[in-house]
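Design review, sub-item: ligand-bound model
Attendees: FS, YL, KQ
YL presented the inputs for the pyridoxal-5'-phosphate complex:
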Amino acid sequence: MNQHMQLEPIPFIDIAAQRRRLGKSIDDAVARVLDHCQFINGPEVTALEKALADYSGAKHVVSCASGTDALLMVLMAKNVGPGDAVLCPTFTFCATGEVVTLTGATPVFVDVDKETFNIDVNSLKRGIATARARGLKPVA
Ligand SMILES: Cc1ncc(COP(=O)(O)O)c(C=O)c1O
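KQ shared the predicted structure:
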């Protein structure tokens, strides 16, 4: 590389690029929803859930408003509650533990593998033992 060459910095996150590419279709979709006023479970929601089911092969898709709601819905569907322990990775967002407490269950944090950042199996075993020692039932 020529030492006199000036390189343009590349932004780490360029939200404007997404706006340039998708802005018109997003504006049109928002306008459509504002026109028909079906803000909850309208045709766009049905279309999204169908597209996700087709893409993933899942039998059912239930969309929701946030990642937090998605995590909470899964725990509620599995009847997680008081007396249960849910093993959570330490390398995560606070919502992961927050939703466990919302069900009345207890989050038990376990380390992640330093190479993969997935839950470390040995730490998971220790977390399960710790939960049991405290009278909790490890369920998820
Ligand atoms: C790993 C993880 N779980 C859950 C959430 C919560 O998602 P939301 O902010 O949409 O509720 C986040 C948000 O960044 C996340 O990174």
